[in-house]
Amino acid sequence: MVNYRYLGNSGLKISEITYGNWLTHASQVENDVATACVRAALDAGITTFDTADAYANTAAEQVLGDALKGERRESLEIFTKVYWPTGPKGPNDVGLSRKHVMESINGSLRRLGTDYVDLYQAHRYDVETPLEETMQAFADIVRQGKALYIGVSEWTADQIRAGAALAKELGFQLISSQPQYSMLWRVIEDEVVPASKEVGVSQIVWSPMAQGVLSGKYLPGQPAPAGSRATDEKGGAQTISRFMDDAVLTAVQNLKPVAEELGLSMAQLAVAWVLQNDNVAAALVGASRPEQVAENVKASGVTIPAELLQKIDDVLGDVVVRDAGKTLEGMPKTRPV
Ligand code: NDP
């Protein structure tokens, strides 16, 4: 079964393997497969589920809500997010203004079929809304009981510090940061993680398998396997392209002996690796098939000895991205439309 970790400086425990439905529900996979993946997650002991209003332009929340129908609400931790454009994508259907935050939570709760989410996350930093306005809206949502805790995603170290200070002033808890983190993408290590530790925030990390690349199934110079994300023209092929480089794919193949030494699959090694970081509360994994969920959860509780962590670094060498500036670089400079 899956181990639990505290989320930030709070009393909330979440499953250290968390299931996410970006690009899959209401998009790459049919609803029956989506439901089977959620079922596989529940059967394996995953209790924490992550989605966003913007996934499949709100339809992914509905699919997840339907798949979780009938489950005991108190036995689940349901997370969603707000920021990216939704619905007809009008001028106020985006961002972290009070108007959009207060409206978006209502739509999310309706689609998810629940009275509250356990964690409500700012999906990015909104450079066009005063931070005070956003945090006041979050404070009101917490007071209304529509969200129990607040988190952010892909915020810089300074933004996390400023957000946490305001949350404290307003009397609610900012407990999580949701950044990309994997053996290949380590940009949070130098700044975001130390700042988060200072203010009682932990990481729920996305794409721990680099969208499937670290499973080792993409071979350099060869076509991607049928049905994989790299062949998904609805979005996956484009988002995974940053890793579809022969130097990266070759280095990943060279990790196989490390996985074998630990008795793990490559996918399990990737998930276990992010969980070695003690500021990480959960690896947020996706799946296009229930068998993947069953495989990936076995990464829970694995310890990778220091010499093998070093071997991983030696094998991957300079294909690893570590530049802390990438968080700011990747942030929208204006509100997206
Ligand atoms: P992963 O790195 O875990 O990639 C998951 C994909 O890898 C699956 O959909 C599947 O794709 C493939 N895969 C999974 N398990 C295996 C396996 N055992 N063997 C081979 N292939 C496997 O994470 P995601 O990129 O899906 O992101 C996870 C979650 O993180 C999202 O659902 C979302 O909740 C969150 N997220 C948050 C973001 C943010 O901005 N806050 C951004 C992106 C994601 P396939 O079978 O199609 O190849």
Automatic annotation (TrEMBL):
GO MF entry, a single one: oxidoreductase activity
Alphabetized Gene3D superfamilies for the sequence: NADP-dependent oxidoreductase domain
Domain of life: Bacteria
Keyword Oxidoreductase applies: yes
The entry's keywords: NADP, Oxidoreductase
Keyword Oxidoreductase set for record: yes
Pfam families attached to this UniProt entry: Aldo_ket_red
SUPFAM superfamilies: NAD(P)-linked oxidoreductase (SSF51430)
PANTHER family registered for this protein in UniProt: HYPERKINETIC, ISOFORM M (PTHR43150:SF2)
Name this polypeptide is given: Aldo/keto reductase
Organism of provenance: Promicromonospora citrea
